[in-house]
Design a protein that fits this description.
Blueprint lengths: L2 H20 L9 H9 L7 H8 L15 H16 L1 H8 L1 H31 L13 H29 L4 H27 L4 H22 L2 E5 L1 E2 L1 H6 L8 E5 L6 H18 L4 H9 L5 H22 L2 H10 L2 E2 L7 H35 L8 H33 L2
Antiparallel strand pairs: 1-3, 2-4
Helix pairs in contact: 1-7, 1-8, 3-11, 4-5, 4-6, 4-11, 5-6, 6-7, 6-11, 7-8, 8-16, 9-15, 9-16, 11-12, 11-13, 13-15, 14-15, 15-16
Amino acid sequence: MTRAIVNKILITLLFLFAYRVLAYIPIPGVDIEVIKEFFRSANNSQNALGLFNMFSGHAVERLSIISLGIMPYITASIVMELLAATFPNLAKMKKERDGMQKYMQIVRYLTIVVTVVQAISVSFLLRNMGNSGSGAIMIDMQSFIIISIFSMLTGTMLLMWIGEQITQRGIGNGISLIIFSGIVSSIPSAIEGTFGLVNTGEINYLVLIGIVLIIIFTVFAIIYVELGERRIPVSYARKVVMQNQNKRIMNYIPIKINLSGVIPPIFASALLVFPSTILHASSNEFLKSIADFLGPDKYVYNILMFLLVIFFAYFYASIAFNSKDIAENLKRQGGYIPGMRPGEGTVQFLNSVAGRLTLFGSLYLALISTLPWILVKSMGVPFYFGGTAVLIVVQVAIDTMRKIEAQIYMSKYKTLSAVGF
Protein backbone atom coordinates (compact mmCIF):
# COMPACT_ATOMS: atom_id res chain seq x y z
CA MET A 1 0.00 0.00 0.00
CA THR A 2 1.11 3.54 -0.72
CA ARG A 3 1.68 6.16 1.94
CA ALA A 4 -1.48 8.03 0.90
CA ILE A 5 -3.67 4.96 1.51
CA VAL A 6 -1.98 4.27 4.85
CA ASN A 7 -2.61 7.89 5.87
CA LYS A 8 -6.30 7.55 4.97
CA ILE A 9 -6.59 4.38 7.05
CA LEU A 10 -4.86 6.05 9.99
CA ILE A 11 -7.15 9.09 9.70
CA THR A 12 -10.17 6.75 9.73
CA LEU A 13 -8.89 4.92 12.82
CA LEU A 14 -8.12 8.24 14.55
CA PHE A 15 -11.66 9.54 14.05
CA LEU A 16 -13.16 6.22 15.17
CA PHE A 17 -10.97 6.41 18.30
CA ALA A 18 -12.32 9.92 18.94
CA TYR A 19 -15.84 8.49 18.59
CA ARG A 20 -15.09 5.82 21.20
CA VAL A 21 -13.66 8.46 23.56
CA LEU A 22 -16.90 10.46 23.28
CA ALA A 23 -18.81 7.34 24.38
CA TYR A 24 -17.19 7.69 27.84
CA ILE A 25 -18.13 11.36 28.43
CA PRO A 26 -21.34 11.30 30.53
CA ILE A 27 -24.06 13.93 30.67
CA PRO A 28 -23.79 15.93 33.94
CA GLY A 29 -26.41 15.36 36.65
CA VAL A 30 -27.04 11.63 36.07
CA ASP A 31 -26.70 8.70 38.47
CA ILE A 32 -24.88 6.19 36.26
CA GLU A 33 -25.37 3.32 38.71
CA VAL A 34 -29.16 3.55 38.37
CA ILE A 35 -28.85 3.33 34.58
CA LYS A 36 -26.46 0.36 34.76
CA GLU A 37 -28.88 -1.43 37.08
CA PHE A 38 -31.65 -0.73 34.58
CA PHE A 39 -29.67 -2.39 31.78
CA ARG A 40 -28.74 -5.38 33.96
CA SER A 41 -32.39 -6.36 33.90
CA ALA A 42 -33.10 -8.98 31.20
CA ASN A 43 -36.37 -7.25 30.31
CA ASN A 44 -34.65 -3.95 29.62
CA SER A 45 -31.65 -5.24 27.66
CA GLN A 46 -33.74 -5.97 24.59
CA ASN A 47 -36.05 -2.95 24.36
CA ALA A 48 -35.57 0.21 22.28
CA LEU A 49 -32.89 1.54 24.62
CA GLY A 50 -31.13 -1.82 24.46
CA LEU A 51 -31.00 -1.52 20.67
CA PHE A 52 -29.69 2.05 20.99
CA ASN A 53 -27.13 0.79 23.49
CA MET A 54 -25.87 -1.87 21.06
CA PHE A 55 -25.60 0.53 18.08
CA SER A 56 -23.80 3.17 20.19
CA GLY A 57 -21.29 0.77 21.78
CA HIS A 58 -22.79 0.95 25.31
CA ALA A 59 -22.89 4.77 25.20
CA VAL A 60 -26.52 4.71 26.42
CA GLU A 61 -25.57 2.55 29.39
CA ARG A 62 -23.08 5.25 30.40
CA LEU A 63 -25.49 8.01 29.24
CA SER A 64 -22.72 9.72 27.32
CA ILE A 65 -23.20 12.79 25.16
CA ILE A 66 -23.46 10.48 22.11
CA SER A 67 -26.18 8.28 23.65
CA LEU A 68 -28.49 8.96 20.71
CA GLY A 69 -25.72 7.94 18.33
CA ILE A 70 -26.16 8.75 14.66
CA MET A 71 -29.82 7.64 14.67
CA PRO A 72 -31.29 11.21 14.64
CA TYR A 73 -29.32 11.94 11.45
CA ILE A 74 -30.53 8.67 9.89
CA THR A 75 -34.14 9.47 10.85
CA ALA A 76 -33.82 12.94 9.28
CA SER A 77 -32.31 11.38 6.15
CA ILE A 78 -35.27 8.98 5.88
CA VAL A 79 -37.75 11.85 6.06
CA MET A 80 -35.86 13.84 3.42
CA GLU A 81 -35.53 10.83 1.09
CA LEU A 82 -39.29 10.25 1.30
CA LEU A 83 -39.98 13.94 0.67
CA ALA A 84 -37.56 13.97 -2.29
CA ALA A 85 -39.41 11.00 -3.78
CA THR A 86 -42.72 12.86 -3.32
CA PHE A 87 -41.81 16.40 -4.41
CA PRO A 88 -40.01 16.78 -7.80
CA ASN A 89 -38.47 20.16 -6.89
CA LEU A 90 -36.73 18.65 -3.89
CA ALA A 91 -35.49 15.73 -6.00
CA LYS A 92 -34.14 18.19 -8.58
CA MET A 93 -32.37 20.13 -5.81
CA LYS A 94 -30.71 16.92 -4.65
CA LYS A 95 -29.28 16.17 -8.12
CA GLU A 96 -27.68 19.61 -8.57
CA ARG A 97 -24.30 20.36 -7.00
CA ASP A 98 -25.32 23.62 -5.32
CA GLY A 99 -28.74 22.19 -4.55
CA MET A 100 -27.17 19.18 -2.81
CA GLN A 101 -25.49 21.51 -0.32
CA LYS A 102 -28.87 23.09 0.50
CA TYR A 103 -30.42 19.63 0.72
CA MET A 104 -27.78 18.46 3.23
CA GLN A 105 -28.25 21.67 5.20
CA ILE A 106 -31.97 20.90 5.53
CA VAL A 107 -31.08 17.37 6.69
CA ARG A 108 -28.82 18.86 9.39
CA TYR A 109 -31.54 21.24 10.59
CA LEU A 110 -34.03 18.37 10.72
CA THR A 111 -31.45 16.31 12.64
CA ILE A 112 -31.35 19.06 15.27
CA VAL A 113 -35.15 18.88 15.66
CA VAL A 114 -35.15 15.08 15.98
CA THR A 115 -32.26 15.21 18.48
CA VAL A 116 -34.04 17.76 20.67
CA VAL A 117 -37.25 15.68 20.70
CA GLN A 118 -35.37 12.48 21.57
CA ALA A 119 -33.24 14.23 24.23
CA ILE A 120 -36.38 15.48 25.97
CA SER A 121 -37.90 11.99 25.77
CA VAL A 122 -34.76 10.42 27.27
CA SER A 123 -34.82 13.01 30.09
CA PHE A 124 -38.35 12.03 31.08
CA LEU A 125 -37.46 8.36 30.79
CA LEU A 126 -34.56 8.88 33.21
CA ARG A 127 -36.90 10.57 35.66
CA ASN A 128 -39.14 7.48 35.67
CA MET A 129 -36.18 5.09 35.97
CA GLY A 130 -35.41 3.40 39.27
CA ASN A 131 -37.29 3.41 42.57
CA SER A 132 -36.65 6.98 43.71
CA GLY A 133 -38.94 9.86 42.78
CA SER A 134 -36.28 11.59 40.67
CA GLY A 135 -35.14 8.37 39.01
CA ALA A 136 -31.60 8.60 37.65
CA ILE A 137 -31.54 12.43 37.74
CA MET A 138 -29.60 14.07 40.59
CA ILE A 139 -30.49 17.72 39.81
CA ASP A 140 -33.77 19.56 39.20
CA MET A 141 -35.70 18.43 36.13
CA GLN A 142 -35.79 21.77 34.25
CA SER A 143 -32.02 22.23 34.47
CA PHE A 144 -31.37 18.64 33.46
CA ILE A 145 -33.59 18.90 30.35
CA ILE A 146 -31.61 21.93 29.17
CA ILE A 147 -28.28 20.23 29.93
CA SER A 148 -29.30 16.98 28.23
CA ILE A 149 -30.55 18.79 25.11
CA PHE A 150 -27.31 20.71 24.65
CA SER A 151 -25.13 17.71 25.56
CA MET A 152 -26.86 15.24 23.23
CA LEU A 153 -27.14 17.83 20.46
CA THR A 154 -23.40 18.50 20.72
CA GLY A 155 -22.68 14.76 20.66
CA THR A 156 -24.87 14.11 17.62
CA MET A 157 -23.37 17.07 15.73
CA LEU A 158 -19.87 15.80 16.55
CA LEU A 159 -20.77 12.34 15.21
CA MET A 160 -22.13 13.89 12.00
CA TRP A 161 -18.88 15.85 11.61
CA ILE A 162 -16.77 12.76 12.31
CA GLY A 163 -18.77 10.78 9.74
CA GLU A 164 -18.30 13.47 7.09
CA GLN A 165 -14.56 13.71 7.81
CA ILE A 166 -14.13 9.93 7.47
CA THR A 167 -16.01 9.93 4.16
CA GLN A 168 -13.99 12.85 2.75
CA ARG A 169 -10.52 12.17 4.15
CA GLY A 170 -10.54 8.51 5.19
CA ILE A 171 -11.64 5.17 3.78
CA GLY A 172 -15.26 4.06 3.52
CA ASN A 173 -18.60 5.58 4.46
CA GLY A 174 -18.24 7.50 7.73
CA ILE A 175 -21.80 7.01 9.01
CA SER A 176 -21.72 3.27 8.35
CA LEU A 177 -18.31 2.91 10.02
CA ILE A 178 -19.56 4.72 13.13
CA ILE A 179 -22.44 2.24 13.45
CA PHE A 180 -20.04 -0.61 12.64
CA SER A 181 -17.57 0.37 15.38
CA GLY A 182 -20.39 0.79 17.90
CA ILE A 183 -21.66 -2.75 17.26
CA VAL A 184 -18.18 -4.29 17.20
CA SER A 185 -17.23 -2.62 20.49
CA SER A 186 -20.21 -4.30 22.20
CA ILE A 187 -19.30 -7.81 20.99
CA PRO A 188 -16.64 -8.60 23.70
CA SER A 189 -19.04 -7.83 26.57
CA ALA A 190 -21.76 -9.91 24.87
CA ILE A 191 -19.37 -12.86 24.53
CA GLU A 192 -18.26 -12.46 28.13
CA GLY A 193 -21.86 -12.44 29.33
CA THR A 194 -22.68 -15.54 27.30
CA PHE A 195 -19.72 -17.53 28.67
CA GLY A 196 -20.69 -16.36 32.14
CA LEU A 197 -24.12 -17.93 31.69
CA VAL A 198 -22.49 -21.10 30.33
CA ASN A 199 -20.30 -21.32 33.46
CA THR A 200 -23.32 -20.88 35.74
CA GLY A 201 -25.26 -23.53 33.84
CA GLU A 202 -28.02 -21.21 32.54
CA ILE A 203 -26.98 -22.05 28.97
CA ASN A 204 -25.62 -25.46 28.01
CA TYR A 205 -22.82 -26.09 25.53
CA LEU A 206 -25.16 -27.42 22.83
CA VAL A 207 -27.09 -24.13 22.78
CA LEU A 208 -23.80 -22.21 22.62
CA ILE A 209 -22.65 -24.31 19.66
CA GLY A 210 -26.01 -23.70 17.97
CA ILE A 211 -25.64 -19.93 18.44
CA VAL A 212 -22.12 -19.97 16.96
CA LEU A 213 -23.29 -22.03 13.98
CA ILE A 214 -26.19 -19.65 13.33
CA ILE A 215 -23.86 -16.63 13.36
CA ILE A 216 -21.32 -18.35 11.08
CA PHE A 217 -24.04 -19.43 8.65
CA THR A 218 -25.48 -15.90 8.62
CA VAL A 219 -22.06 -14.37 7.92
CA PHE A 220 -21.35 -16.76 5.02
CA ALA A 221 -24.86 -16.20 3.59
CA ILE A 222 -24.36 -12.42 3.68
CA ILE A 223 -20.94 -12.65 2.00
CA TYR A 224 -22.28 -15.00 -0.68
CA VAL A 225 -25.23 -12.76 -1.57
CA GLU A 226 -23.26 -9.50 -1.33
CA LEU A 227 -20.72 -10.76 -3.85
CA GLY A 228 -23.45 -12.04 -6.20
CA GLU A 229 -24.40 -10.01 -9.28
CA ARG A 230 -26.13 -10.36 -12.63
CA ARG A 231 -23.89 -9.42 -15.54
CA ILE A 232 -25.80 -8.15 -18.56
CA PRO A 233 -23.67 -8.45 -21.75
CA VAL A 234 -22.99 -5.27 -23.75
CA SER A 235 -21.75 -5.00 -27.34
CA TYR A 236 -20.08 -2.00 -28.94
CA ALA A 237 -19.90 -0.87 -32.55
CA ARG A 238 -16.69 -1.79 -34.38
CA LYS A 239 -15.78 1.88 -34.75
CA VAL A 240 -15.96 2.43 -30.99
CA VAL A 241 -13.82 -0.66 -30.32
CA MET A 242 -11.15 0.48 -32.81
CA GLN A 243 -11.05 3.97 -31.31
CA ASN A 244 -10.62 2.54 -27.78
CA GLN A 245 -8.47 -0.50 -28.56
CA ASN A 246 -5.84 0.65 -26.04
CA LYS A 247 -8.46 1.17 -23.33
CA ARG A 248 -10.49 -1.38 -21.46
CA ILE A 249 -14.20 -1.26 -22.34
CA MET A 250 -16.47 -3.08 -19.91
CA ASN A 251 -18.49 -5.57 -21.93
CA TYR A 252 -21.15 -6.12 -19.29
CA ILE A 253 -23.35 -4.19 -16.85
CA PRO A 254 -23.07 -5.60 -13.29
CA ILE A 255 -26.30 -5.44 -11.28
CA LYS A 256 -25.98 -6.58 -7.66
CA ILE A 257 -28.59 -8.77 -6.00
CA ASN A 258 -28.67 -6.34 -3.09
CA LEU A 259 -28.72 -2.92 -4.74
CA SER A 260 -29.57 -1.02 -1.56
CA GLY A 261 -26.73 -2.34 0.62
CA VAL A 262 -26.96 -1.83 4.37
CA ILE A 263 -29.38 1.12 4.18
CA PRO A 264 -32.76 -0.75 4.55
CA PRO A 265 -32.08 -2.40 7.95
CA ILE A 266 -30.54 0.82 9.32
CA PHE A 267 -33.48 2.92 8.11
CA ALA A 268 -36.02 0.38 9.41
CA SER A 269 -34.33 0.20 12.83
CA ALA A 270 -34.19 4.00 13.13
CA LEU A 271 -37.84 4.37 12.13
CA LEU A 272 -39.01 1.76 14.65
CA VAL A 273 -36.83 2.93 17.53
CA PHE A 274 -37.80 6.62 17.26
CA PRO A 275 -41.49 6.32 18.35
CA SER A 276 -40.59 3.67 20.93
CA THR A 277 -38.11 6.04 22.61
CA ILE A 278 -40.74 8.78 22.86
CA LEU A 279 -43.40 6.39 24.25
CA HIS A 280 -41.00 5.02 26.88
CA ALA A 281 -40.55 8.56 28.24
CA SER A 282 -44.23 8.83 29.12
CA SER A 283 -45.50 8.14 32.65
CA ASN A 284 -48.76 6.83 31.21
CA GLU A 285 -48.94 3.07 31.70
CA PHE A 286 -50.91 2.58 28.48
CA LEU A 287 -48.26 4.34 26.38
CA LYS A 288 -45.54 2.39 28.19
CA SER A 289 -47.32 -0.87 27.37
CA ILE A 290 -47.41 0.17 23.69
CA ALA A 291 -43.67 0.89 23.83
CA ASP A 292 -43.01 -2.54 25.37
CA PHE A 293 -45.29 -4.10 22.75
CA LEU A 294 -43.07 -2.57 20.03
CA GLY A 295 -39.81 -3.69 21.67
CA PRO A 296 -37.12 -5.39 19.55
CA ASP A 297 -37.69 -8.64 21.44
CA LYS A 298 -41.38 -8.77 20.40
CA TYR A 299 -42.88 -10.38 17.30
CA VAL A 300 -44.70 -7.18 16.25
CA TYR A 301 -41.40 -5.32 15.99
CA ASN A 302 -39.87 -8.05 13.84
CA ILE A 303 -42.92 -8.29 11.57
CA LEU A 304 -42.76 -4.51 11.03
CA MET A 305 -39.00 -4.81 10.57
CA PHE A 306 -39.52 -7.46 7.88
CA LEU A 307 -42.00 -5.27 5.96
CA LEU A 308 -40.05 -2.02 6.36
CA VAL A 309 -36.80 -3.63 5.17
CA ILE A 310 -38.57 -4.80 1.99
CA PHE A 311 -40.06 -1.32 1.49
CA PHE A 312 -36.75 0.51 1.97
CA ALA A 313 -34.93 -2.05 -0.21
CA TYR A 314 -37.21 -1.22 -3.14
CA PHE A 315 -37.23 2.48 -2.31
CA TYR A 316 -33.46 2.87 -2.09
CA ALA A 317 -32.81 0.57 -5.08
CA SER A 318 -34.99 2.85 -7.22
CA ILE A 319 -32.73 5.75 -6.19
CA ALA A 320 -29.37 3.95 -6.46
CA PHE A 321 -30.07 2.24 -9.81
CA ASN A 322 -31.04 4.70 -12.57
CA SER A 323 -31.74 2.61 -15.68
CA LYS A 324 -32.49 5.70 -17.79
CA ASP A 325 -29.03 7.18 -17.18
CA ILE A 326 -27.36 3.81 -17.92
CA ALA A 327 -29.28 3.48 -21.21
CA GLU A 328 -28.37 7.03 -22.25
CA ASN A 329 -24.68 6.47 -21.43
CA LEU A 330 -24.67 3.24 -23.44
CA LYS A 331 -26.26 4.96 -26.43
CA ARG A 332 -23.81 7.85 -26.20
CA GLN A 333 -20.83 5.45 -26.14
CA GLY A 334 -22.11 3.39 -29.05
CA GLY A 335 -22.99 0.38 -26.91
CA TYR A 336 -26.13 -1.74 -26.80
CA ILE A 337 -27.55 -4.83 -25.11
CA PRO A 338 -27.88 -7.66 -27.69
CA GLY A 339 -31.52 -8.23 -28.59
CA MET A 340 -32.67 -4.94 -27.01
CA ARG A 341 -33.45 -1.70 -28.79
CA PRO A 342 -31.41 1.28 -27.56
CA GLY A 343 -33.32 3.84 -25.53
CA GLU A 344 -36.68 2.92 -24.03
CA GLY A 345 -36.31 -0.79 -24.77
CA THR A 346 -33.04 -0.92 -22.82
CA VAL A 347 -34.60 1.03 -19.93
CA GLN A 348 -37.51 -1.41 -19.64
CA PHE A 349 -35.20 -4.42 -19.79
CA LEU A 350 -32.87 -3.03 -17.11
CA ASN A 351 -35.85 -2.15 -14.90
CA SER A 352 -37.26 -5.68 -15.20
CA VAL A 353 -33.90 -7.27 -14.33
CA ALA A 354 -33.33 -4.88 -11.41
CA GLY A 355 -36.89 -5.47 -10.17
CA ARG A 356 -36.45 -9.25 -10.08
CA LEU A 357 -33.09 -8.98 -8.34
CA THR A 358 -34.48 -6.48 -5.83
CA LEU A 359 -37.29 -8.92 -4.97
CA PHE A 360 -34.76 -11.58 -3.95
CA GLY A 361 -32.45 -8.98 -2.40
CA SER A 362 -35.22 -7.48 -0.26
CA LEU A 363 -36.39 -10.90 0.95
CA TYR A 364 -32.78 -11.79 1.79
CA LEU A 365 -32.35 -8.59 3.82
CA ALA A 366 -35.69 -9.07 5.60
CA LEU A 367 -34.91 -12.71 6.48
CA ILE A 368 -31.40 -11.92 7.69
CA SER A 369 -32.81 -9.08 9.84
CA THR A 370 -35.53 -11.18 11.52
CA LEU A 371 -35.00 -14.95 11.19
CA PRO A 372 -31.79 -15.17 13.30
CA TRP A 373 -33.61 -13.25 16.06
CA ILE A 374 -36.39 -15.84 16.15
CA LEU A 375 -33.90 -18.71 16.27
CA VAL A 376 -31.69 -17.04 18.85
CA LYS A 377 -34.68 -16.02 21.00
CA SER A 378 -35.85 -19.62 21.15
CA MET A 379 -32.43 -20.57 22.57
CA GLY A 380 -32.61 -17.95 25.32
CA VAL A 381 -29.65 -15.79 24.34
CA PRO A 382 -29.13 -13.00 26.92
CA PHE A 383 -27.93 -10.30 24.49
CA TYR A 384 -29.34 -8.63 21.41
CA PHE A 385 -27.02 -9.50 18.54
CA GLY A 386 -29.42 -10.55 15.86
CA GLY A 387 -29.39 -10.48 12.08
CA THR A 388 -29.42 -6.68 11.77
CA ALA A 389 -26.17 -6.32 13.73
CA VAL A 390 -24.44 -9.13 11.82
CA LEU A 391 -25.71 -7.73 8.51
CA ILE A 392 -24.37 -4.24 9.24
CA VAL A 393 -20.99 -5.52 10.45
CA VAL A 394 -20.39 -7.83 7.46
CA GLN A 395 -21.69 -5.41 4.81
CA VAL A 396 -19.69 -2.45 6.11
CA ALA A 397 -16.56 -4.63 6.34
CA ILE A 398 -17.00 -5.81 2.73
CA ASP A 399 -17.70 -2.27 1.48
CA THR A 400 -14.65 -0.88 3.30
CA MET A 401 -12.39 -3.63 1.91
CA ARG A 402 -13.63 -2.91 -1.61
CA LYS A 403 -12.87 0.79 -1.21
CA ILE A 404 -9.38 0.02 0.07
CA GLU A 405 -8.77 -2.25 -2.95
CA ALA A 406 -10.11 0.47 -5.27
CA GLN A 407 -7.67 2.97 -3.73
CA ILE A 408 -4.79 0.51 -4.20
CA TYR A 409 -5.65 -0.11 -7.87
CA MET A 410 -6.06 3.62 -8.48
CA SER A 411 -2.60 4.32 -7.05
CA LYS A 412 -1.13 1.57 -9.29
CA TYR A 413 -2.74 3.10 -12.39
CA LYS A 414 -1.40 6.53 -11.45
CA THR A 415 2.09 5.07 -11.04
CA LEU A 416 1.93 3.29 -14.42
CA SER A 417 0.67 6.42 -16.17
CA ALA A 418 3.55 8.42 -14.66
CA VAL A 419 6.48 6.03 -15.27
CA GLY A 420 5.12 3.83 -18.06
CA PHE A 421 5.79 0.11 -18.55
